[in-house]
Amino acid sequence: MSTTATEEQIVSVITSTELLQHWQGHRSLTRKVIAAFPEKEFFEYSIGTMRPFAAMVQELLAIAVPGIKQIVGGEAEELKEHIEEANSKANILSLWDKATDDINRLWAQISNERFRETILAFGQYEGTVWSSIFYFIDNEIHHRAQGYVYLRSLGIEPPPFWER
After folding, report:
1. Structural domains of the chain sorted by starting position, each given as residue range(s) with its CATH number in brackets
2. Nearest Cα to 37, choosing from 60, 62, 57?
3. What is the pLDDT of residue 6?
4. Residue 78 confidence (pLDDT)
5. pLDDT for res 77
6. Mean pLDDT per 10-residue run, the chain (164 residues)?
7. Closest CA to 59 of 106, 98, 95, 109
8. CA angle in degrees (0–180, nearest 5) for 6-8-10
């Protein structure tokens, strides 16, 4: 069976709600990885030239809500990977939870048509809205995997990756 371009545009593989649930599943797992770290190692431990996991998490926080805010409102913020309040694991977990709520609130303001529009994320990275969101998710998975390596090298069993 063949489909025309018009039919392909009408049929969707995943809904906006399902994409949000998928991302929030990843965010839930990343939160478990953050929580698994001892405080000192969260901020200081690294392997080779990789950054401590706390620095990677600050990057994720700097991307998620500001990125979605730009998608909703159109105004790009400068990417700021250092967050002053991120000075303890408890504070970072609190920031993570707030970001989760903010993403849910902002997501409801994204129309289905908006996902196909082109944006310049953070004033630097051109792509569609959906490709930018996929980057946010892929980047989180990448850094979470680094967190898994750190935890295993510290003798700590990370949370099962499939428990999202």
Report:
1. 14-153 (1.20.120.450)
2. 57
3. 56
4. 79
5. 78
6. 54 88 97 98 96 97 96 84 88 97 97 93 92 97 98 97 86
7. 95
8. 75
CB atoms within 10 A of CB 69: 17
State pTM to two decimals: 0.89
**What gap in Å lies between CA 52 and CA 44, rounded to an integer?**
6
DSSP codes, the chain: ----HHHHHH--SS-HHHHHHHHHHHHHHHHHHHHHS-HHHHHH---TTPPPHHHHHHHHHHHHHHHHHHHHH-PPPP-----TT-SSHHHHHHHHHHHHHHHHHHHTT--TGGGGSEEEETTTEEEEHHHHHHHHHHHHHHHHHHHHHHHHHTT-PPPPTT--
